[in-house]
C-alpha cells in the first residue's frame, strides 16, 4: 500500500468520492470550502419543505434531492428516510455510486491548524482511509503509518500490515459536540485544543460517532451507515449518527476492518439550542443506558459474511431485545430492514451512476 504521507489524495480520488450535505438553507458555507471541494461531486439532500428553493454557489458540480425525489425514487421504502432531521443525509449515501463518501454539516467551516494554515479536512480524511488501521493491538505512538512514526517495540510483527480502514471520524474546534445537559451547564465552553493525532479505535470498543465531519469507504461499509429513524414523527432525535456508529463499529469488528478518529478538525460555527436538543434527546439519554450494553453484547454468527447480512442480524436482535424497552425499537428494526432492501435495489451489481435513478434528482 502507498505511503499515505507521499500520496496526492485530491488528485487520486477526484472521481472516487462524493461529498454528501444535508441542509434546509442556502449553501453559502461552500464558498469557504471552494478551494477544497470544487473538484468533487456534491450530493445535497434537502430536508423539510421540498417547495423551498435551495441556492448553491456557482461552479460546483452537484445533485440536489428533496423529499419529493426521495419519495419518487424509493416509493413505499421512503419511509425509512428520516424527515426534518439531518439523518436524511443517508439517502445521499444510498444514491452515490462512488467508492468513498465525505459528509459535512452546513454550519461547519474551514478550521486553522496551530500555525494558522487552513486545514484541508477532506485531504486528511482521504489519507486516513487510504492507510491501514490497527484495531487488534494498540500502538502507543498512535498512527504508525504516519510520516515520522512507526510501530513501537513489542508490537507483534504479524499485525503490522494492518487492516482496511472503513471509517475516518473527524473532530471539531469551537462548538463542542455535547448533549443538551452538558450544553446547559457549560454554555460558554469552546474546544480550542488541537491534538495532532489519529488513532484506531480498538476492537470491542464503541464510540459516539458524530456525522458532521465524517468520511467512510462506501464500498466496504456503506450499507451499515443508516442514520436510523429520527426527527419528525419519531420520539427521539440527535442519536442518528451515534446509532450508525454503533452498528458500524460492531460490523467492522466482526469483519475485521478499522475505524479511525482524530484529525482532521473543522470549525463548528454555531451550537444548536440546548432546550430544543433536550426535547429531542431526553428519551435517548435514558435509553442509551440500555443501548450501550446491547451493542457491547451483540455477537454476529460466522455466516454473516457481508455488511447486509450483519445489518439484518443486528436488526433482528434490536427487535428481540430492545423492542422490550420501547415499541419504537420494533419500528426502527423494521426500518433497518427496509433500508437494506432499498440499498440493494439502488445498488445492484453492475450499477453505474446516479443519473440512472428513476426520475432523477431535482436541479
Automatic annotation (TrEMBL):
Enzyme class: isomerase
Entry EC number(s): 5.4.99.30
Site (Required for activity): 153, 160
Catalytic activity field: UDP-beta-L-arabinofuranose = UDP-beta-L-arabinopyranose
Principal location listed in the UniProt entry: Golgi
GO biological-process terms attached to the record: cell wall organization; plant-type cell wall organization or biogenesis; UDP-L-arabinose metabolic process
Source domain of life: Eukaryota
Subcellular location: Golgi apparatus
InterPro entries: Nucleotide-diphossugar_trans, RGP, RGP_fam
Similarity section: Belongs to the RGP family.
Protein's job: Probable UDP-L-arabinose mutase involved in the biosynthesis of cell wall non-cellulosic polysaccharides.
Alphabetized PANTHER family for the sequence: ALPHA-1,4-GLUCAN-PROTEIN SYNTHASE, UDP-ARABINOSE MUTASE
Name the UniProt record assigns to this protein: UDP-arabinopyranose mutase
Species lineage: Eukaryota, Viridiplantae, Streptophyta, Embryophyta, Tracheophyta
Amino acid at each position: 500500500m502507498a505511503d499515505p504521507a507521499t500520496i496526492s489524495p485530491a488528485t487520486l480520488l477526484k472521481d472516487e468520492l462524493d461529498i454528501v450535505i444535508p441542509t434546509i438553507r442556502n449553501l453559502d458555507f461552500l464558498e469557504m470550502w471552494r478551494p477544497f471541494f470544487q473538484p468533487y461531486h456534491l450530493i445535497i439532500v434537502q430536508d423539510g419543505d421540498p417547495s423551498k428553493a435551495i441556492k448553491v454557489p456557482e461552479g460546483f458540480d452537484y445533485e440536489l434531492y428533496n423529499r419529493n425525489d426521495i419519495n419518487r425514487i424509493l416509493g413505499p421504502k421512503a419511509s425509512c428516510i428520516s424527515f426534518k432531521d439531518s439523518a436524511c443525509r443517508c439517502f445521499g449515501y444510498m444514491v452515490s455510486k462512488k467508492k468513498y463518501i465525505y459528509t459535512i454539516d452546513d454550519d461547519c467551516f474551514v478550521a486553522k491548524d496551530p500555525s494558522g494554515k487552513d486545514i484541508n479536512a477532506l485531504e486528511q480524511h482521504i489519507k486516513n482511509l487510504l492507510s491501514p488501521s490497527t484495531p487488534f493491538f494498540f500502538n502507543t505512538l498512535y498512527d504508525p503509518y504516519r510520516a515520522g512514526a512507526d510501530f513501537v517495540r513489542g508490537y507483534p510483527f504479524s499485525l503490522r500490515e494492518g487492516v482496511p480502514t472503513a471509517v475516518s471520524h473527524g473532530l471539531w474546534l469551537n462548538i463542542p459536540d455535547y448533549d443538551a445537559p452538558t450544553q446547559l451547564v457549560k454554555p460558554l465552553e469552546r474546544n480550542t485544543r488541537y491534538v495532532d493525532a489519529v488513532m484506531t479505535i480498538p476492537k470491542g470498543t464503541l464510540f459516539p460517532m458524530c456525522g458532521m465531519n465524517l468520511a467512510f469507504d462506501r464500498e466496504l461499509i456503506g450499507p451499515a451507515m443508516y442514520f436510523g429513524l429520527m426527527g419528525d414523527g419519531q420520539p427521539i432525535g440527535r442519536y442518528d449518527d451515534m446509532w450508525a456508529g454503533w452498528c458500524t463499529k460492531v460490523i467492522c469488528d466482526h469483519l475485521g476492518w478499522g475505524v479511525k478518529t482524530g484529525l482532521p478538525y473543522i470549525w463548528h460555527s454555531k451550537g444548536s439550542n440546548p432546550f430544543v436538543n433536550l426535547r429531542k434527546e431526553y428519551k435517548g439519554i435514558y435509553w442509551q443506558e440500555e443501548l450501550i450494553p446491547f451493542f457491547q453484547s451483540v455477537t454476529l454468527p460466522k455466516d454473516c459474511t457481508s455488511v447486509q447480512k450483519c445489518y439484518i442480524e443486528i436488526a433482528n436482535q434490536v427487535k428481540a431485545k430492545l423492542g422490550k424497552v420501547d415499541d419504537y425499537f420494533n419500528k426502527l428494526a423494521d426500518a433497518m430492514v427496509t433500508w437494506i432492501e432499498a440499498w440493494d435495489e439502488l445498488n445492484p451489481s453492475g450499477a453505474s451512476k446516479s443519473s440512472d435513478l428513476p426520475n432523477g434528482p431535482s436541479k
